[in-house]
Amino acid sequence: MAKDKLVEVSEKVGAALGKANKQAHLKAKKVAEASKVAKEELHAIAKQVESLKKQLEKTTKRLKSALS
């Protein structure tokens, strides 16, 4: 009887650990996907900043030549 109870308890513990492991895996997958999206967005922002920097350099050059 005690052995059956022990098996029953160990099955419940195993099931709980399995569920927790699955949830952790799913959360890790979501975090990985979110970090990938964030990296792509950061790259796009970096491109925009570089474009604005070039535009500012051109504008500065034009303004300097107009003032001189």
In whole angstroms, the N-to-C terminal distance is: 99 Å
The biggest beta sheet reads: none
Strand content: under 5%
SS elements, strand count: 0
Give a short overview.
The chain contains one helix and no strands.
What report would you give on this structure?
The protein is mostly helical and 68 residues long. 97% of the residues lie in helices and 0% in strands. The longest helix is centred in the middle third of the chain and has 66 residues, at 2-67. It is rod-shaped and about 100 Å long. 0% of the residues are buried. The model has no long low-confidence stretch (mean pLDDT 94).
Please write out the topology.
Layout: H1 2-67
Essential attributes:
68 residues; mainly alpha
